[in-house]
Specification:
4-stranded parallel β-sheet; two-stranded antiparallel sheet; 5 helices
């Protein structure tokens, strides 16, 4: 309920079905101040199906930017469903860095933010790493290309979590 400058948001919920997204949105709308609800409904675009970045996905984000008044944020949940598939000919680090770097340049050129939601590694014996950036699934090319990283961790079946931030 914090008032901020109104802007348009694109939320790509690529692991969910429309019904789950709608149920979650309805629960969230219940706690938003009534004066803000209409603005949220008008300014939020949600999609559960979207092409990959290299298969026209980034071009479709560009089209969305042109169709709305003030695009400021695109949320890609989860990024691995949007990013190009890995090619065996190049190093995974290089590919991760190039793919996320292209999304970052896209957002930077439009003075908007891009939030790529990504999975963390499954903890091995003895728990997680001393450096929370090592908890990000995939290569260090992902954390290297991003301006900032947030890692949210919690133990299974617990409600308390820890948010670690850099950048």
């Amino acid at each position: 309920n914090m008032r901020v400058a109104a802007a348009d948001v694109l939320y790509l919920s690529l692991e969910d079905k429309q019904r789950r997204v709608k149920d979650r949105a309805m629960r969230m709308m219940e706690v938003i101040h009534p004066d803000l609800r209409e603005s949220v409904k008008r300014r939020l675009t949600v999609a559960t199906d979207w092409p990959r970045q290299d298969e026209g996905g980034l071009k479709m984000v560009e089209l969305w930017c042109r169709q709305v008044k003030d695009p400021r944020l695109v949320i890609i949940d989860v990024y691995n469903r949007f990013s190009p598939r890995q090619q065996s000919s190049n190093s995974a680090y290089q590919q991760d860095s190039e793919h996320l770097g292209a999304l970052k340049r896209f957002a930077d050129n439009r003075s908007m933010a891009a939030l790529g939601v990504h999975h963390t590694r499954k903890p091995g014996p003895g728990g997680g790493s001393a450096d929370f950036l090592n908890e990000i699934s995939g290569t260090l090319g992902i954390s290297g290309a991003a301006d900032g990283i947030m890692v949210l961790t919690r133990n299974r079946q617990e409600s308390q979590a820890c948010l670690m931030v850099t950048g």
